């Protein structure tokens, strides 16, 4: 499996094996074990070894807007009140984070320019092609080359569980007519494969196959370890996707 489970001080969290090979990147995907909304910043700070005051999140609106963090002079608390669903930076010691409870967490790393990003991609963000927007921003601001970008698709609701109506089926078919196998038909139901769509969107942007990692871990199937809005009929609990550059990167 491309993603590994780790336990530390009563916390369970997840990381990509491939990302762990980079000695200048720290990243994490939290679970429901040991984490809560009150302790998240402090525990992220300890796990990533970065100041909790340097954690940045956004007011997520299920869109495709990407916020660039390019200065330490910014008021990070103020930035965290901005609306958006993606964050990008090349500055060390800053924690970029997004919140999830079934929606797709997507990590981005430019292996050459040492640029990182993280995005929240529910069905709306996936439909709007958040993956493309993130890569476009990396190319436009940092002159990133697609062949150097590593993409990680983390735990989220999978094609085993994400039943959708025919309205969404038609929307995705019309928007992505060339995307194959993005639906699963089972027991007179149609299920949407958000993992594959984001994978294909990354491929469309020129990301190489070997540089796209799909965790294939379904949050709905694993509510013992993850919060799942769909499976639990609504929940205030969230997992957090976080990434940061180490000092000296």
Return the CATH architecture: 4-Layer Sandwich
Rg on CA atoms, Å: 17 Å
CATH topology: CNF1/YfiH-like putative cysteine hydrolases
Q: How far apart are the termini?
A: 28 Å
Shape field: globular
* Alpha-beta content class: alpha+beta
Under CATH, the homologous superfamily reads CNF1/YfiH-like putative cysteine hydrolases
Number of helices: 7
Low-confidence stretches: none
Summarize the helix and strand pattern as letters. Answer: EEHEHEEHEEEEHHEHEEHEE
Query: On the 0-100 scale, what is the average pLDDT?
Result: 95
Strand order of the largest sheet: 1-2-3-14-7-4
- What is the count of distinct domains? 1
Name the descriptors.
249 residues, alpha+beta, CNF1/YfiH-like putative cysteine hydrolases, 6-stranded mixed sheet, 14 strands, 22% helix
Give an overview of the whole structure.
The chain is 22% helix and 29% strand. 44% of the residues are buried. It has a single domain, classed as 4-Layer Sandwich (CNF1/YfiH-like putative cysteine hydrolases), CATH 3.60.140.10. It has a 6-stranded mixed β-sheet. A 6-stranded mixed β-sheet has the order 5-6-9-8-10-13. The protein has a two-stranded antiparallel ribbon with strand order 11-12. The mean pLDDT is 95. With 249 residues, the chain is an alpha+beta fold.
């Amino acid at each position: 499996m491309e993603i590994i489970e780790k336990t530390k001080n009563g916390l369970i969290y997840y990381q990509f094996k491939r990302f762990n090979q980079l000695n200048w990147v720290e990243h994490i995907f939290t679970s429901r074990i040991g984490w809560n909304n009150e302790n998240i910043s402090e525990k992220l700070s300890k796990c990533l070894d970065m100041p909790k005051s340097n954690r940045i999140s956004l007011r997520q609106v299920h869109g495709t807007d990407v916020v660039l963090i390019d200065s330490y002079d910014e008021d990070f608390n103020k930035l965290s009140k901005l609306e958006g669903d993606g964050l990008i930076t090349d500055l060390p010691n800053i924690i970029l984070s997004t919140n999830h409870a079934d929606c797709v967490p997507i990590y981005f790393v430019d292996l050459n320019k040492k640029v990182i990003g993280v995005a929240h991609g529910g069905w709306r963000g996936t439909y709007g092609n958040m993956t493309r927007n993130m890569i476009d921003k990396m190319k436009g601001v940092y002159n990133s080359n697609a062949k150097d970008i590593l993409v990680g698709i983390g735990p989220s609701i999978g094609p085993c569980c994400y039943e959708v109506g025919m309205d969404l089926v038609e929307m995705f078919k019309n928007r992505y007519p060339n995307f194959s196998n993005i639906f699963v038909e089972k027991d007179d139901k149609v299920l949407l494969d958000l993992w594959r769509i984001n994978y294909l969107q990354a491929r469309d942007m020129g990301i190489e196959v070997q540089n796209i990692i799909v965790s294939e871990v379904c949050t709905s199937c694993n509510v013992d370890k993850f919060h799942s809005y769909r499976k639990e009929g609504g929940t205030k609990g969230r997992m957090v996707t976080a990434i940061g550059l180490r000092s000296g990167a």
